[in-house]
Amino acid sequence: ENPTKDDIAEAITRSIVPQERLNLTIPDLAYHEVGGFPASDIDGCAYRLPTIYSFDNEQAHWSNDLHEDLCFKGGGIVHIGEGYHPDGRPNVENIFNTIEEDLFHQFKNTTGSGPNDHRRQNAEEAAIRYRFDYDVLLQALDTYLFRKNGVAPPGAVRAAPIIHLERAIQNSDMLARRVPPDERRNWTMHEAWEKRTVQGGGSRKAPPYVQIKEAEYTSERLRNRWDLLGEEVLILLNRKDSLRVKMFLADGSYFDTLLVERRFRVPHSFWVRSLYIQSMKQNEHAPREYPTQVVFRHLSQQARSCKKSRNQLQRLLLENPELATSFAEYSDSPVEESEDRRVPTPTDERDQRLDNIVVPFKAF
């Protein structure tokens, strides 16, 4: 219904990291002979970082976490246009207006450009009648943009957009900034910094751990560091992967990778964890159930009568496609810590670099 900061981060990540073409399932739909996307189809354009990110006044665009990712990690400048004044950014508005008129408004279930649009007629009923779902929109949009990038605009004196960009990079390297090679593995805009206090001890004499969203994170190294109890540490987490987080000491030096406690060791995002916590407060889960199972069952029950739940269920299925069939893939065997801990060594360039990083406190 409305994009979140994670949706924006995912869109930016996909524009920077090369993506594979979609497996098209719509009859007679195919990618055009000419076209493409910069990160995937232009040599040397992968992992190039934009200088300016132009946004409108959508609520998700004002997220402080998103701005920190774009400015601190991406090294760019965030520019949010003035509200209700689209003429201030005509190039951006023209792109989206063209996409809407050429594609979105051509479907029977279009909601049009506003409440008074004559094309806005029983959009939800039409979506059911014509079996319109997210995959249809995704495949149509992907092939449309693929072709649009490879065809010169009518009356334009320059070449097609993707060819124009390729020549500009070759001649002047207009996109000089890029993700360093040692950071490209699993590079994403979904990372965030948080401060946490090392907990433990007490009546149950629990080994040191860090608590994040109702779950305990620890490692073999942290369990043996009783001197860190009560100390404030820095946590680097990936909002799409809640299984592991990286822990840094207060001076910014890398300490270890922490693994979540056993009952949460099934792939899920921190967004799913938040929904799971809500269900815990309402006692809507059974013992030994995984967070994704609880959230999927709850949203499935609410989806018939609640539009918000339908949107949340769609997002959950996008993150976990296997939920639509079964949970047979999920095993009770936990992730072994010995295989997942990443201890920096002289041969591990990535973690050795993280060991020496200085985290700026402006990120908090």
Structure keywords:
two-stranded parallel sheet, 9 strands, alpha+beta, disordered C terminus, globular, 364 residues, 35% helix
Task: Walk me through what this model shows.
A 7-stranded antiparallel β-sheet has the order 3-7-8-9-6-5-4. The protein starts with a helix and ends in a 9-residue tail after the last helix. Helix 9 (270-281) crosses helix 10 and helix 10 runs antiparallel to helix 11 (307-319). The chain has 364 residues and is an alpha+beta fold. The chain is globular and about 75 Å long. The protein has helices spanning 5-16, 38-41, 64-73, 90-102, 123-129, 134-150, 161-172, 220-223, 270-281, 291-302, 307-319, 337-340, 349-355; strands at residues 52-55, 77-80, 191-197, 199-201, 206-212, 215-218, 232-238, 241-248, 254-260.
Main beta-sheet strand count, sense and barrel state: 7 strands, antiparallel
How far is it from the N-terminal to the C-terminal residue, by CA?
29 Å
Order of helices and strands: HHEHEHHHHEEEEHEEEHHHHH
What is the number of helical segments per DSSP (H or I, 4+ residues)?
13
Order of the strands making up the biggest sheet: 3-7-8-9-6-5-4
So what's the overall shape? Answer: globular
Strand content: 5-15%
Low-confidence stretches: 326-364
Alpha carbon gyration radius: 23 Å
Helix residue percentage = 25-40%
What's the total count of β strands?
A: 9
Mean pLDDT: 82
Structural class: alpha+beta
Question: Care to give the gist of this entry?
Answer:
The protein is of the alpha+beta class and 364 residues long. The protein has helices at 5-16, 38-41, 64-73, 90-102, 123-129, 134-150, 161-172, 220-223, 270-281, 291-302, 307-319, 337-340, 349-355; strands at 52-55, 77-80, 191-197, 199-201, 206-212, 215-218, 232-238, 241-248, 254-260.
